[in-house]
Design goal:
By secondary structure, the protein is mainly α. It is 61% helix and 0% strand. It has helices at residues 2-11, 13-22, 34-43, 48-62, 69-73, 77-83, 87-101, 115-122, 130-139, 152-162, 170-177, 184-194. α8 (115-122) packs across α9 (130-139).
């Protein structure tokens, strides 16, 4: 990580200042498992507290702490909705469970796959878009060079510290993040943290 921070400080004076204000890099990682991706689906578009409550209820409905496809498939959509999942998210979670149980999605193989291969496999699941897989790549597979250009927090951070406007195009963000290669995940994390700075 020290190599990453040295490179980022050297290449990007704006990011250098953010790193000095925020301090050390502390990504909260999750194991790259079926459980983690279900968690990501449940957490989509919800505040952390609400999502945590719903996810806890869903685990209780499944009768396990660590979710497995077989346990999820035994729970009806009505039970999922009673736990707080929307009908849409219940269908997404069920589709992920079905595709994992059938072997179409192979969590054990992801470590050997490229980022694009993981994105290609997981976006076959209903409700799993590129952003969700990018979060999985960053927070579960610990890939160092992911740039989630459509992430609202990353964009807001970059608007704040680089003076981009809300109407800036994805290419404008990507041009700045080019300087961060091969540690764009780290640069993105600092953009999230920059939103907490006064």
């Amino acid at each position: 990580m020290e190599d990453a921070l040295c490179l980022l400080r050297r290449r990007d004076p704006v990011l250098k200042q953010i790193i000095s204000q925020v301090g050390s890099y502390e990504m909260a990682y999750h194991p790259p498992t079926f459980h983690s991706l279900v968690r990501s689906i449940v957490y989509q578009q919800l505040s952390g507290k609400a999502a945590s409550t719903i996810f806890g209820r869903f685990q209780t409905a499944c009768g396990v702490r660590t979710l497995k496809p077989e346990a999820v498939l035994e729970v009806s959509e009505e039970q999922m909705r009673a736990a707080g999942l929307s009908g849409q998210k219940a269908r997404y979670v069920r589709d992920l469970a079905l595709k994992t149980a059938s072997g179409e999605v192979r969590f054990r193989g992801h470590k050997r796959m490229t980022d694009d291969e993981v994105i290609g496999e997981l976006t076959k699941v209903k409700g799993v878009g590129v952003w969700t897989v990018q979060m999985f790549l960053m927070f579960a597979l610990r890939r160092p060079d992911v740039f989630p250009v459509l992430d609202l927090g990353v964009r807001n951070g970059m608007q704040k510290v680089y003076g981009l406007s809300a109407s800036s195009k994805p290419a404008d963000y990507e041009a700045i993040a080019e300087k961060w290669r091969p540690y764009r995940s780290v640069g993105s994390w600092y953009m999230w943290q920059s939103l907490e700075l006064s």
